[in-house]
Amino acid sequence: MSPPEAAKASIAKSALSVLTSGSILTVVGYGLFFISTTRGISQVGRFVGRGAMLSIVLVLTLLPALLALFDRQIARQQERSRTRSERLKNRRSAGRGDNDKAGNEEKKKDRKEKKKKKSWKRKSEENEVEVGFDETA
Questions:
Q1: Is 120 part of a structural domain of the chain?
Q2: How many domains does the chain contain in total?
């Protein structure tokens, strides 16, 4: 199905629900505008009514046109997203492939040793700074 045909089909399929919900919101908004005696609340009703009418028009006209116009770019972006998620899943599954407990224990020990070395370096750097501070004072 071509993008213009798809836009027409989507309008035909969703127009009733968009018109129903938008009309209800418009009536409620303008009802609030006419019934309320408080100016602030009345203005809110007016803005809700206008916004609902504007959204009906835009959803039924501009949105399908934009989707048809940018169909290729949307499809390319979706494909890129799909390939990225597949690569990420493959990386994760490749990392889980070795369920060897001994290998995992060695990795944990290596991580702990690296952390100890880092913390020792930090402590020694802190000590050097303190010593430098004492000598200058």
A1: no
A2: 1
- What span, in angstroms and rounded, lies between the C-alpha atoms of 63 and 81? 22
First to last CA, the chain: 80
Dump pLDDT digits (tens) for 5-44: 888 888 899 999 999 999 999 999 999 999 999 999 999 9
Cα 70 to Cα 67, 76, 77, 106: the distances in Å are 5, 10, 11, 52
pLDDT digits (tens, 9 = 90+) for 79-129: 999 999 888 888 888 766 545 555 577 777 777 777 766 665 555 555 554
Determine the structural domain holding residue 72 and report its residue range.
3-97
